[in-house]
Amino acid sequence: MAYKCSSDIVDSYATMHACISDDYYSVYASITTKYNQYGEWNFYWKMELQRYVTLSTWNTIDTRYGYVSETSPSNRTFSNIGKYNDPMRLVIHYYNDSGYNEYLESQYVDGWYR
Predict the structure, then answer these.
(1) Which residues contact 13 (CB under 8 A, 6 or more apart)?
(2) For 98, which DSSP code?
(3) Using an 8 Å Cβ cutoff, are 41 and 34 in contact?
């Protein structure tokens, strides 16, 4: 079973923390945030579970959308994900709006195999 966390993203608004774990059938992702200033704030995100293919190419297996705030952490499950002992990563793109137009930055949870 893998358990891996990313380096935290820290900016003037918040600190973002992301982790994955897995079992035989599923991959579980979680995002939490702690505000640095300016009070309550929603960060919208697009989460992509990816498997390494070849020559620095990653294939997106599945995608989730949501938001995270200090009082509402995000937990998502990617079900029925095959185990082939390939490099995996979770890419999280953060946005400032629910329409996913105002891109902020990306966070990676990588360095694990499935």
Answers:
(1) 35, 36, 37, 38, 41
(2) T
(3) no
How far apart CA 31 and CA 89 sit, in angstroms, is 15
Cα(114)–Cα(99) distance, rounded to whole angstroms? 32
Residue 7 Cα distances to 53, 57, 107, angstroms: 24, 22, 8
30 touches 45 (CB < 8 A): no
For the stretch 37-96, pLDDT in tens is: 666 778 899 999 999 998 889 999 999 999 998 889 999 999 999 888 999 999 999 998
d(CA 48, CA 101): 17
Give the tokens for residue 66. Answer: 């949501």
Q: Which pTM was predicted?
A: 0.88
Number of Cβ atoms within 10 Å of the Cβ of 88? 25
The two structure tokens encoding residue 80: 């029925």
